[in-house]
Amino acid sequence: MPTFAVDDGFAYTVPEEIPNVVVGSHVTVPLGGRKVKGWVTSVRSGESKRKLKSVVGVSGDLPHFDEALLETLRWVALRYVAPMSTVLARSGPPNISRLKGPVVPVAATETRQRAATCIVTGEPYGPTLSKIVTSVVDSGANVLVVCPTADEVTQYAGILEDALGQTVLRVGSAIPARTVTDAWTVAATTQGNIIVGTREAVLWPLGNLGGVIVVEEGRRGMTSPQTPTWTVRDVVVQRSNVEHLQTWFIGPVPSVQLLATTPVVVGADKRAWPLVEVVNRYDEPPGTGPVLAATVMAIRTTLKRGGSVFVFVNRRAYAPVFRCLTCKELRRCPACGAGAERGDRCPRCDMELGGCAACGARRFEPVGAGIGRTIEILHRSLGDAVGAAGSNRAVVVGTERDIPPPASVDLVVIIDADGMLLAPHYRAEEEAIRILGRAAASVARGTGNRTLIQTNQPKDRVIVALRSGRPVPLLSDIHNEREAAGFPPFGEVIIIKTSATSPDVEKQLQVLGEKSGATVLGPVPVADGHRWLVQGRDLHKFRLGLRSVVGVWRESGVKVRVDVDPIDL
Question: Is the pTM above the cut of 0.85?
Fold first, then answer.
């Protein structure tokens, strides 16, 4: 039952005619005059001092978790303020698991846990993945490779099958439920398996699991968009500590959180991507448009030699940033410095914007453009060579979700880097280097191949890091700044969003904050309710108290979303 009220569980007896009830078994039990499904979290022998009802039945042939995985699942429920039943449900397959034959006992492989390793690289991941996977499988253990998207699951599963000549178990939302259930069953009961899947597989019971490889842990697909908003990186680190697993994180730009928890960083001294050139648009006259002449010329040159081009735009809407027609400075909020758009108020702090913060003028022009407008502009110069993602054109225009695989195109164009640098949240620089670094890493090394960045701020430290090809020094600086400010990972932030509020709700949160030493800010009206921000060095006590408060709200009909360590803030 998805409610905090039953987190402590209920006690039942197990009839002799129902064998093999163990920790993790999915059972049917009587509760409140009806039969409900639940999971066994503890098994004890002996006589009960009170009369207990009996378990009615067991679903499936296998438990959904063992004691070790249960410890991690409890951690997820506490950290992300979620009912235990909601988290436990994530560990099971989509359908009831059935064994097709006798189970051969799986012996745990004696592997010495190593420190988590962060591999910084923009080269194709296939060779590195194959090497790591082989070392784990050869020891007789299972290995899990976690990818941000279903397409990448297909891509890397195919690469590993071709390289190693072994069938790979695929897991993802695009795969039929029966196939996923079969993969879950095989992984839980046999060893030497290679499992490649999206974030869901991180909560699976994977039998003799020896290692986990996470591909680009900072991507948005690595965080659950629905509550509980758990993150692959944090759960893998926790599970590794409990089960003594070997873990590897691979990608061109690690997150600040990963660098704070991973002692071994490999490849930080090497370029993670090929050449990056900057096109300074500060000196361009007003009315030039989003795509500069030098950029069009670079695209034409690439097409003449038969190359491919990816044009990155920050989002699908109109223009993420504007600049002053008088002084050419980017429009910013005078209070918090965030990039300002068409409106009269700051999207971050709600300050009235007024004129240009630099000169006071009130006329601005859009600097960036969305996909449709960019395609239209490029089509005038390049004709039918331009199209959106999936069009099979030589010049593809897309957003983050369309970025090609590493080393797969000849030229990448960043139409507007400034919109990302001035994004209205504290992770703006980290997100910019992560996304733009990933785009730059999609360029194959070779003569004439490069990334072209249009910017009004060529000396910005993110742009400097992109040109150097080495993101870790910048991330280390951000790491130190976060530590001084008490922002994650050195402090904690929780966003609470409700569909309704009242004086009682506000008082409950303020009292909870005072008792736990947390700072509670809000409520602030938002589109479909109200929002609070909670901040502190350690919010463990606040989380414990919040569980019961959220439970009461939900029972009264209020919709509540708890976002722990939110991506956008």
Answer: yes
Residue 515 buriedness (CB in 10 A; 0-12 / 13-18 / 19+): exposed
d(CA 115, CA 474): 23
d(CA 310, CA 386): 10
For 207, the token pair is: 């039998």
The vertex-149 CA angle with 146 and 152, nearest 5°, equals 75
Asked if 397 and 311 count as a contact pair (C-beta separation under 8 A), the reply is: yes
- pLDDT per residue over 315-335, tens digit each? 754 456 788 889 888 888 888
d(CA 105, CA 280): 64
Query: What contacts 390, CB < 8 A, 6 or more positions away?
Result: none
Based on DSSP, count helices (H) and strands (E) in the chain, helices before strands. Answer: 15, 22
The token pair that represents 326 in the structure block: 């008088």
Other Cβ atoms closer than 10 A to 525: 10
| pLDDT band at residue 103 using 50, 70 and 90 as cut-offs | low
Q: Of all helices (H) and strands (E), which one includes residue 146?
A: strand 142-146
Domains and their CATH numbers in the chain: 4-91 (3.40.1440.60), 117-266 (3.40.50.300), 276-321+367-469 (3.40.50.300), 492-564 (3.30.70.600)
Token duo for residue 296: 């069009």
Q: Which pair of tokens denotes residue 26? A: 């999915």
Answer yes or no: are the C-beta atoms of 449 and 365 closer than 8 Å: no
Vertex 120: Cα angle to 112 and 206 (nearest 5): 40
Residue 318 has what pLDDT? Answer: 46
Reported as a single tens digit per residue, the pLDDT across 125-138 is 999 999 999 999 99
Mean pLDDT computed over 291-319: 89
Provide the 3-class DSSP secondary structure of residue 220: helix
Helices (H), 25-125: 67-79, 84-88
Taking the C-alpha atoms of residue 539 and residue 543, their distance in angstroms, rounded to an integer, is 6
Whole-number Cα distances in Å, 468 to 117, 280, 484 = 23, 17, 26
